[in-house]
What we know:
Layout: H1 2-62, E1 64-65, E2 68-69, H2 72-85, H3 90-95, E3 97-102, E4 119-126, H4 130-133, E5 149-156
Antiparallel strand pairs: 1-2, 3-4, 4-5
Amino acid sequence: MGTLFLCRRFRHRRLGAAAVEAAVVLPVLLYLMLGLWEVGRLVWVRTILDNSVREGARIAAGGTYAGQPVTVAIVQQQVKDYLTAVGFPAAAVNGATVTLANLSSNAWTDPSDASPNDRFRVTVNIPSGAANSSLQFSPIQTITGTTSITVSVDWLSANDSLVTVDAQLPY
């Protein structure tokens, strides 16, 4: 009977120790889970930005889109439309800066004027502030430490606008 009494007393002391251990471990575990969640969200955001920039570059490479010559404004709108379609917050889409840079030796401003195989770069930047904050999931803003996100892709023009075909037969 004496040992049964000692076991019960020991069990009550152990229950208190479990509560203290949980109080110590739970905040650390919660912080790690939020960090993992935020890193996963950041990977998802980067993947979406990569795809949106590739979509803009694909449109630019063709030289024409929907029967119109492709301009920088069309490429910018395509990237933003892609971001909107996948569910990016409006603050991130409206705050995004999309640029198209000519990397070739040929002088052109709009992709429709590019020569075949001219290199160009499409870049999207989500700046710090409201645009970047709208992409974060966790209430703790400093888990990943990112303040802005920039994604670029280099592409080659597939524009064949320099090829002309004479419609008249030589006879």
